[in-house]
Amino acid sequence: MAMCRPPSLPIILLCFFFLLTMTYAARRLVPLGNQESSPPVKLHVTDTHVEIDNGIVKLTLMNPSGLITSIGYKGVDNILEYRNTEGRRGYWDIVWSRPDRNGSHFDTLHSTSLRVIKESDDQVEISFTKTWDRSRDGEVPLNIDKRYILLRGSSGFYSYAIFEHMEGWPDLNIDEARIAFKLHQDMFHYMVISDNKQRIMPSDMDRKVGDTLDYREAVLITHPSNPRLRGEVDDKYQYSCNNDDSHVHGWISSTGQRIGFWVVMPGDEFRGGGPVKQDLTSHAGPTSLATFFSAHYAGLNYGVRLRNGEHWKKVFGPVFVYLNSDRNNNSTAIWEDAKRQTAQERKKWPYDFPQSPDFPDANQRGAIRGRLLVHDKETAVAKSAYVGLAPPGDVGSWQDDSKGYQFWTRTDDRGYFSIKGVRAGTYNLYAWVPGVIGDYKHHGEITIRPGKQVEIGDAVYTSPRNGPTLWEIGIPDRTAAEFYVPDPNPLLVNKLFINHTEKYRQYGLWNRYTDLYPHNDLVYTVGASDYRKDWFFAHVNRHVNKEYVPTTWQIVFYLRKVVRRGSYTLRVALASSSFAEIQVGINNNNNQHPHFSTGRIGRDNAIARHGIHGLYKLYSVTISGCQLVEGRNTIYLRQARGGNPFTGVLYDYIRLEAPPQR
Ligand SMILES: *[C@@H]1O[C@H](CO)[C@@H](O)[C@H](O)[C@H]1NC(C)=O
Ligand SMILES: *[C@@H]1O[C@H](CO)[C@@H](O)[C@H](O)[C@H]1NC(C)=O
Ligand SMILES: *[C@@H]1O[C@H](CO)[C@@H](O)[C@H](O)[C@H]1NC(C)=O
Ligand SMILES: *[C@@H]1O[C@H](CO)[C@@H](O)[C@H](O)[C@H]1NC(C)=O
User: Fold this and answer.
1) What are its E.C. numbers (predicted)?
2) Ligand 3 centroid to 71 CA: how many Å?
3) What number is the average pLDDT over the span 431-454?
4) What is the pTM of this model?
5) d(CA 145, CA 147)
């Protein structure tokens, strides 16, 4: 302001004008619905409830349990299901057990104490806490701090929670953690998971009066209130998504003014299992979930396991619950706006407004960058590879981890990656490359420090390979999506997935194997068969006389020459396994003495849950040249465990390598 120094009137006036114009310009840049034009956030606490109102959204919570009893928006007092008891409308929940005791507990984490953390015109943040000590023997040995935030001018609210297990406390298993919302049943019938997954849903009552199928979550809708839904299957697992495909989902009301309700994941660091872990999203009820981790598509060993009195603390969230509407009641516009808002929230991550010291802001975080190369037949840059920091562990251990934080990205076309906003701490750098088998782990642990960037330069992943490919089946991408996915039984259809890229979400495909192969098992002939048409996506049991019996698949291939003293390598990459055992026979189908067996593997249950993948596993089987013959050879793959329709594996990719070449 040096130019203002000479105090002559014209100049002062000029400066005044200048300031006025500047302020005006600055004002004009403020987007609609932002702070100054909106009313201040108001907090109102009574003995039984806490109300936070920013003039757009009004959130009401129970005091001191911290459960959500109502969300008001656009003249609707409560978009949650008011007919449910107050404790069953919107709540954090976990499933926990103590390894030294029987019993598993579904727990909605009732807090015992309320604290107002911040109360200003621009932000209200409140905390509901619950602390454990040895006198609370039957309760979960965790300290819980549930937070809710409303910002001025924001059409929604934020929630996060801090779970802490103190040193010396009893061992604990936490199998899942999430926030659940039960929406108003008369208002919400239209569910949106993505651009190509949205539909009118059956009601809770439609499910109750329908026919339960092979498990209670799957119901054939027989007497719906909306006759167009008659004869369809409804199953919440059909709406599961990979974490990296799932940053916003929810519902649009279909009565009165159209209102959108959205669960937004602004960040991913607190979600367990890495970018392709699948979890539930929204489903009939109407229900919407913010799932932080669960055993779904992973198995019973998955989850937070606290042993030997270890200290553990993790922040889950914040997640954003967004409400919106459209002047013309246009549902497409409401969904488009929800996606736009999600992109904005993700841009703001890591948020700077949460008040807990356990949630570090951008300045307290670090970064890493580098380039990934992959060496298979030759060395090349790894394009679109998944690269992530996750807790130190074995190669691929991030798949099972929900205890720590994970930070993932994809490499660009030149193999470069950069991960910002990483919490300070010690990690391993992990990666995998679509199109190439196996898992990468960078040697040595990586320490991320606040405000610092780690440069790792070029990292080279050497993919397992002993010799040139003789033949291969499928694409090494950790899913079975490229294989033959049958049409569902016409009496068991979810119309959303007809002619859909996610055809595998249909119910009951496991039984189609028996329809296609009633007597003899699948035989795949290298060079003549096409895996898109001739390789059934799931190696399951056959349904015979009310029993599920093991099946043996054959891969037939011709070798012109065999190196009798050479070692051949069979690579079998699995996209999923559930209570299965794959036995491999080489030109010999002797069940008593298979050449190789995986042993019993997996509990990810992806077949029953319509996932096209669960957890990834790679087996390398050495085959001696003297087991092979010139001419026709057969590899037998026997899934040896019968008894159940869902027992089996999803193959990702199979390859036979010739002996190493000098
Ligand atoms: C669990 O229950 C079984 C059978 O009811 C009982 O035999 C066992 O002692 C119990 N274990 C524990 C740790 O309580
Ligand atoms: C949107 O729906 C509300 C409630 O049904 C109605 O009052 C309003 O006129 C509708 N707006 C338009 C543009 O149709
Ligand atoms: C609804 O909104 C979408 C997206 O903004 C737009 O393309 C479409 O034309 C709108 N439909 C109507 C009937 O206005
Ligand atoms: C699915 O695609 C087929 C062939 O393209 C078409 O005939 C059929 O009408 C489609 N079905 C639906 C429900 O879209």
Assistant:
1) 4.2.2.23
2) 27
3) 97
4) 0.93
5) 6
